Amino acid sequence: MTPDSDRPGSGSPDSEESLAAIRERIDLERVELSQTVEALANKVDVKARVQDKAEEIKTRVHDNVEAAVGATKEAVGTAVGATKEVVGTAVDATKEAVGTAVGATKEAVGTAVEATKGAVDTAVEATKGAVDTTREKAREAALVARRPAVMWPAIGTVAALAAIVIVVRRLAGRR
């Protein structure tokens, strides 16, 4: 056992100091013990640890999703801008190509109309010439027809000339 002088409350000044030091050490030990018990309780409390970890992961995922959404919005904006530019260029090029095609078509139609007019004029002139020739030959045939022996060959010539006129007129009508 310990002597009475070492017991707390025995009245000696050293013992009062030692009692205060012991109480202070006990308080410190209680704080340390409380922290140790709390740390052990946290390690043993799996549910709380899982919830903490889940919250940490949730925060990390949320941050990653926000970053991905921001990057996606930026990429979409860039793609939309580039698409608008390409479409605008394509529209301008298409308008220019259509304008060129319309101009070339108008020119080709004008050339075709002029060529057709020329062909019709040529056909009309050829037909007039054929008609004039046919009339002349018909007159000649009439003169020859007055002579009985020569009449049948003249009729054949007139018939041939009439057939030529009919063919030429039909050809001119097709153009």
How is this structure best summarized?
It is built from 3 helices and no strands. Helix 2 packs antiparallel against helix 3 (151-174).
The biggest beta sheet is recorded as: none
Count the beta strands: 0
- The helix/strand series, from N terminus to C terminus, equals HHH
User: Which value, in Å, is the CA radius of gyration?
Assistant: 61 Å
- Beta-strand content: under 5%
Q: What's the structural domain tally?
A: 1
Low-confidence residue ranges: 1-5
Count of runs of 4 or more consecutive helical residues: 3
Mean pLDDT: 80
Helix-strand makeup class: mainly alpha
Report helical residue fraction. Answer: over 70%
For the structure shown, list the relevant keywords:
mainly alpha; 0% strand; 175 residues; rod-shaped; single chain
What can you see in these coordinates?
- By secondary structure, the chain is mainly α.
- The chain has one domain.
- Helices cover 89% and strands 0% of the residues.
- The chain contains three helices and no strands.
- Helix 2 runs antiparallel to helix 3.
- The longest helix is centred in the middle third of the chain and has 100 residues.
- The protein is rod-shaped, with a radius of gyration of 61 Å.
- The N terminus is likely disordered.
Write the layout of secondary structure elements.
Blueprint: H1 13-44, H2 46-145, H3 151-174
Helix pairs in contact: 2-3
